[in-house]
Structures are given as structure tokens and as C-alpha cells.
Specification:
The complex is a heterodimer. By secondary structure, chain A is an alpha+beta fold. Chain A has 11 helices and 13 strands. Chain A is elongated. By secondary structure, chain B is α/β, with parallel strands linked by helices. Helices cover about 30% and strands about 25% of the residues of chain B. In chain B, the strands form 2 sheets. Chain B has a 6-stranded mixed β-sheet, with helices on both faces. The chains are: A alpha+beta, B alpha/beta. The interface of A and B includes residues 6 and 347 of A.
Chain lengths: ~350, ~220
């Protein structure tokens, strides 16, 4: 550490440039991770808020809520307990005078079932009739207030906002909670159709009908349209940035080590153990990466403070800390490349000539 | 009792037809308190002689004894430790660590050799003797050639080794500085009871040596 710190202190410009590279890489990784998390949360926030373990869909729906319809006939013989609830889903466009059109997900609920019962409101009350709705706070951010009315798709009657709830997002669209009757109206369906799905907090819940199929929550989430592809894209981007940071650190340290081989040969001739020099290189990498990370974290915190709420970013500290730890490990691995040079340095090379 | 003794040292480089016999049956001994000079032209084998004496290069045959300890019976780690504790090197290009101040050059030794280094008072005396007290907070790039050489000498002496091996310590110095370094090495050998071995082609150092060996085509002979 002694050699590492002294060298960084003496070669300020050189090491500032390396730290600047690490700052940019770490900042980019933090922002991308937060964006990936934010988008992932916007896909699943509503599902997460229901706290479900199972979902039952029509077996021909290809694990897609919007393609699933459950009929009375299919549900005959299935008894719902306190841990089960019907969900009716339909994609809608919300419009109201003075507001831009918003794409949203309408979720019809039965008032006496757990999803509706557990719905947490930031203001207002739960729907008491088919023309009342509770909407995500994104609508509040767009200027909607309690008591405002909105049209959903081309339904003739308008719906009144009676409550706001937060973190109600499904497939990156804000959720509008209403009744199952309203869902049927929006779908133009009769009472034969009961719901789009049954959700359950019991991981052993099974549907007895051969036309229905149950899935774990994770299976269902993984099949949300675009969810896996989007997450894979971000994961690859973050992984590539990690690899790039490893290469940057390894290349810089390699070049710096090559420049210092003459000094290392002298120190080896004087009996300075190779492990001292290896330790200096690794600790130098750790100091550089941690310095870069600290500044990168600061920039990320500033970004978090000024980023508009409409940008889907989630700054999850444990996950970002894990990413930071990954970068430190990457730095250590990068520092191991020049270690071979140090171990092979020949003290004889500095004598004579 | 010799501080360092080389007995029947032979060293070859290369294989088969390109094999070169660099050192022929070298016998050499240096005593504590003496400045020994090994003089020879370029290519005579004096650098190879120094690396073998310092435990940096294994001879093909013969033995090297430091304080009666056979150097090449030790493994690499033990030889590293022996070099750190008993041998100080002064090199032609000074080779000070560029990002450490003069004072910090000694601090590095403190980190790897916890005991037996000069005390702060002894270091102050040494710096005074070498006339580099004022340079303690300067970096090598801020020093002249002569100053760097004196710092390199101080660094070699800092771990209080029994033996100092110097490789062409006056190669880059003018005549006045050569005299100064020659006098200094002779004084240090005597005042600190060190065995100082200097390999050089600089005949101007002859006046300060207690014993002089000449090395030519890998063969050594004692002249004084």
C-alpha cells in the first residue's frame, strides 16, 4: 500500500486519468443498472404489490394475462379461499379533457377478495361501484385529481377517480384499478366471463380444470411481453461494461508495470520480496477502483436527485453496492494480469550493461 | 574471516557450440573494513562476477560464502532475505524509486525489514556524512547525478548490511565526483566496518582501494 499510495500521490495526472475512466465506467454501470431496475420494476410493480405466489391462466393464453380469459364453465368446481382473487385485465387508453392520452392497464378486482382488500391508497377510497376507479400516482403527476373523470377506450360512460395508489405499474404502463363488472364492460363481454386470471398467495394452489394452467409468479413475470428481452439486454450491457472496465484496468496497470520493471528489478535485487511488489500493484488497483467508485457514486446520487420522476430509474442501494463490489473484484482481477510480469522480473537485468 | 568468499566459481552462458565460459575458476575474498576493487574492461565478466557474489545468478560450479554461509545452498526466498539483511547494492544508474522522496526510499526498507536498520540518529549521521541532509524531501528527478549516487549509497547502507556490492558507481561522474565517491566508499568501509566490493573499469578509484583484483576474459588475479 505504501508504494501504491506514494506513486498515486506523485503521478497525480496519470492516475487521475485512470480514475476518471473508472468514474465514467462506474457511473455508466450505476445508471444502466438503475434504469434496468426501474424498467423491470415498472413491468412488475403491480404484481409485486399483490404479493402472489401463483397465477392461473387459460392454458391457451401462452402465459399472457391479456390473452387469458376464464369462463364460468372452466371455473366450475374451483373454490377460491381467502388467499385467492380474480383479476380481469384489459389494456386501455385513458383520456380526459385537458390531459394527454395515456396508455394504461385496467385491472378489475372483486372488492371482497385479497387484492382489492390489500390495495394501499395514498389518498381517496376504494371503488364502490363500477364507474369508480383507483389509479396509479403517475396520473396524479399528470395533473389528475380525486373526483376527476376520464374516458377509458371508447366506453360511453366516464370513470371517476376515487383514489390514488403508488407503485401500480404493469408492463411499464400505469394501472387503473376498478371492478370486475367494469372490466367486462371494457372488454364488451357478458357475465359468462369471470376474469382473466386467478392469483393466489398459496404456492400449492392448483386449478382443477384441464383448460387452465397454473404458473409461479416468476414464470409469469418472465413471460411478460418484452420483460426478459429487456432484462437480457441490460444484463449484457452491464456485463460488457464490467469486462471493459476489467480490460481498462488490466491494460493501464500492465503498461504502468512495464514502465516500472527497471525499478522493480532494483528492488528485487535489494531483497524486496516479490509479494511486496505484487501487493503494491493489487492495492493500487483497489485504491484506483474505490476512488473511481466513490466519485461515480456521488455522480449517481446527484443524478438520482435531479432526474425527473418520469424517467424509470430505481436506485436500489443493495443492488448498486453489489455492482460496486463486482467492480472492485474486476479491478483486482485486472491487477492480476501484470503480476506475472512482476514475478518474472530479473534483478540481474539492472546490473552491468 | 572473510565477509564474502568466492571459491572456484565457473559460469557459462549458452548451449553447445554457442557456449561461452564467462568466469574461469574465480577465487576472491573481501574482508570487513576494506574497499575491494575489481577492475576490468567491458565484457570481462565483472558484472557476472557481481551478480553471482550478490546471490542473483547461480554459478555452474564453485561456492559463494557470505559470513561463512553457503549462498547457493539457500532457496530463492532465503537468498532474498539474505540480500535484504546482509547485502547493499549500489548500481550504475542509481535506480532510486522515482516516486519516493529521499527520506521515503529508506521508509520502503523499514516496511520489509522491521529490525536492524539504522536508527533515526544513525541515519541522520549518515546523511550528514554523505552531505545529503538537505535533500531528504526531494524526489530523485530533482537531484544531480552526484547527489543521486550519494542517496543510492545511503540507501544501500540503511539496512546496515555487512557487504556492499557496487556496480560502476562512478560511471556517470566527473573526476572531482569520482574522487569524492572513492574517498567516501573507503571511509565508509573503514568507519562502518563494511566489506565494500566495487566492480569498475574506472582506474581513478585505484587510489582508494585496500585491495585490487583485475578481471580479464573471465579470469581474475589479485594485483594489490
Amino acid at each position: 500500500m505504501f508504494l501504491a499510495l506514494k506513486e498515486i500521490k506523485h503521478e497525480k495526472l496519470r492516475y487521475s486519468l485512470i480514475i476518471a475512466m473508472i468514474v465514467l465506467i462506474s457511473y455508466l454501470i450505476f445508471v444502466l443498472t438503475s434504469l434496468a431496475l426501474g424498467l423491470a420494476r415498472q413491468n412488475t410493480a403491480a404484481i409485486d404489490s399483490w404479493q402472489i405466489d401463483r397465477i392461473v391462466l387459460n392454458q391457451d393464453a401462452n402465459v399472457n394475462l391479456s390473452q387469458s380469459l376464464l369462463t364460468k364453465q372452466q371455473l366450475a368446481g374451483i373454490k377460491l379461499g381467502a388467499k385467492e382473487a380474480y383479476l380481469g385485465q384489459v389494456a386501455v387508453v385513458a383520456k380526459a379533457s385537458g390531459h394527454a392520452k395515456d396508455s394504461a392497464q385496467f385491472i378489475g378486482l372483486a372488492a371482497d377478495q385479497f387484492v382489492a382488500k390489500n390495495l394501499e391508497l395514498t389518498s381517496g377510497h376504494k371503488p364502490t361501484n363500477k364507474q369508480e376507479i383507483v389509479v396509479d400516482t403517475a396520473f396524479k403527476d399528470d395533473g389528475y385529481q380525486l373526483g376527476d373523470r376520464m374516458q377509458l377506450n371508447s366506453a360511453s360512460k366516464s370513470y371517476q377517480i376515487v383514489g390514488f395508489t403508488k407503485n401500480a405499474k404493469l408492463s411499464v404502463a400505469p394501472v387503473i384499478y376498478g371492478t370486475l363488472t367494469a372490466w367486462r364492460q371494457l372488454k364488451n363481454m357478458g357475465p359468462t366471463f369471470m376474469a382473466s386470471a386467478i392469483v393466489s398467495q398459496d404456492r400449492t394452489f392448483t386449478a382443477t380444470s384441464s383448460q387452465l394452467k397454473h404458473y409461479s409468479t416468476q414464470q409469469f413475470i418472465d413471460k411478460l411481453p418484452g420483460y426478459s428481452a429487456q432484462n437480457s439486454t441490460f444484463t449484457f450491457m452491464i456485463a460488457f461494461l464490467m469486462i471493459i472496465s476489467l480490460i481498462v484496468i488490466a491494460v493501464f496497470l500492465y503498461i504502468l508495470t512495464v514502465q516500472k520493471l527497471q525499478n522493480y528489478a532494483v528492488l528485487r535485487a535489494q531483497g524486496i520480496p516479490a509479494k511486496t511488489l505484487v501487493g503494491a500493484t493489487i492495492s493500487q488497483a483497489v485504491v484506483l477502483v474505490i476512488s473511481g467508485l466513490l466519485i461515480g457514486t456521488l455522480l449517481t446520487a446527484v443524478t438520482a436527485a435531479v432526474i425527473p420522476a418520469s424517467v424509470p430509474m430505481t436506485f436500489d442501494i443493495p443492488i448498486l453496492a453489489a455492482v460496486a463490489l463486482g467492480l472492485i473484484l474486476t479491478g483486482i482481477i485486472g491487477a492480476l494480469f501484470p503480476v506475472r510480469l512482476i514475478l518474472r522480473v530479473d534483478p540481474v537485468s539492472v546490473i552491468g550493461g | 574471516m572473510s565477509a564474502i568468499q568466492l571459491t572456484n566459481i565457473n559460469k557459462f552462458f549458452g548451449e553447445k557450440s554457442s557456449r561461452v565460459h564467462v568466469l574461469h575458476d574465480i577465487n576472491f575474498a573481501a574482508e570487513a573494513g576494506q574497499l575491494s576493487l575489481v577492475i576490468g574492461p567491458s565484457g570481462s565478466g565483472k558484472s557476472t562476477f557481481l551478480t553471482i557474489a550478490g546471490g542473483l545468478q547461480t554459478p555452474n560450479s564453485g561456492s559463494v560464502q557470505l559470513d561463512q554461509q553457503p549462498l547457493y545452498d539457500l532457496n530463492t526466498k532465503q537468498r532474498d532475505s539474505l540480500r535484504l539483511n546482509k547485502i547493499g547494492f549500489i548500481l550504475q544508474a542509481y535506480n532510486l524509486v522515482p516516486y519516493l522522496t529521499v527520506r521515503e526510499q529508506f521508509g520502503l526498507a523499514d516496511r520489509v525489514k522491521k529490525h536492524g536498520n539504522l536508527t533515526p540518529a544513525e541515519l541522520e549521521n549518515l546523511l550528514k556524512q554523505l552531505d545529503i541532509t538537505e535533500l531528504q524531501h526531494k524526489y530523485p528527478a530533482e537531484l544531480s547525478g552526484g547527489q543521486k549516487q550519494r542517496v543510492a549509497i545511503a540507501r544501500a547502507l540503511y539496512t546496515d548490511p555487512a557487504i556492499i556490492l557496487a556496480d560502476e558507481p562512478t560511471a556517470a561522474l566527473d573526476s572531482a565526483r569520482v574522487k569524492e565517491v572513492g574517498r567516501l566508499l573507503a571511509d565508509l568501509a573503514q568507519s562502518q566496518n563494511k566489506a565494500i566490493v566495487v566492480v569498475t573499469h574506472d582506474l581513478r578509484l585505484r587510489d582508494y582501494a585496500d585491495q585490487i583484483y583485475e578481471i580479464l576474459d573471465g579470469q581474475i588475479s589479485k594485483t594489490v
